[in-house]
Amino acid sequence: MRTYIALLRGINVGGHKKVPMAELRALLTTSGLENVKTYIQTGNVIFQSLSNDTKILESEIKQSILDHFGFEVSVLVRTRTQLKKIFDDCPFPEAKKVNSYFAILSVYPKEDLIKEAYEKSYDNEEYQIINDCLYFYCANGYGNAKFNLNFFERKLNVSATSRNYKTMVKLLSLSDI
Q1: Which of 38, 41, 43, 127 has its CA 20 to 30 Å from the CA of residue 171?
Q2: What is the DSSP secondary structure assignment for residue 72, as one 8-state letter?
Q3: What is the CATH topology of the domain spanning 2-81?
Q4: pLDDT at residue 177, as a whole number
Q5: What is the pTM (predicted TM-score) of this model?
Q6: d(Cα 43, Cα 21) in Å, to the nearest integer?
Q7: Of the CATH numbers 2.60.40, 3.40.50, 3.40.30, 3.30.70, which one belongs to the domain with range 83-174?
Q8: pLDDT category, 143, cuts 50, 70, 90?
Q9: What H or E segment, with its residue span, contains residue 138?
């Protein structure tokens, strides 16, 4: 049995796409996932499965949510090992890392699209794209950032969802089964 972390995008934000976590846990357990846990209301699910295919798991979770709640949600699934590598590979020094965001990308973006994205920059904002993660640091705080996730999704032709440092630490801790 492998441990996975599912990252859902855009639920329970501003009163839209409401997904109660107890209901989500019950739904995913009924769908065949084991030891389902959630962390905060924004769509972080830790679970175990015999499956070795994250793409199939993403599709099954997405379909279960659509069937039950009636709307589509972007779902990215990573193993604990993959999420730990993403966390450990953060290129920023520790002082910046603790205030960084980790945007998990659905796929590795194409090199030419990465080069094109790097052409745009803003003062006090740094980012690096490494494999399937965009590491983002904003000196003035995320809420004041000029960059946003939609820009990178369009520019890199990927879907993505981001988590801050504290959430990444907690997900790694909760998934250490």
Answers
A1: 127
A2: -
A3: Alpha-Beta Plaits (3.30.70)
A4: 72
A5: 0.92
A6: 8
A7: 3.30.70
A8: confident
A9: strand 133-138
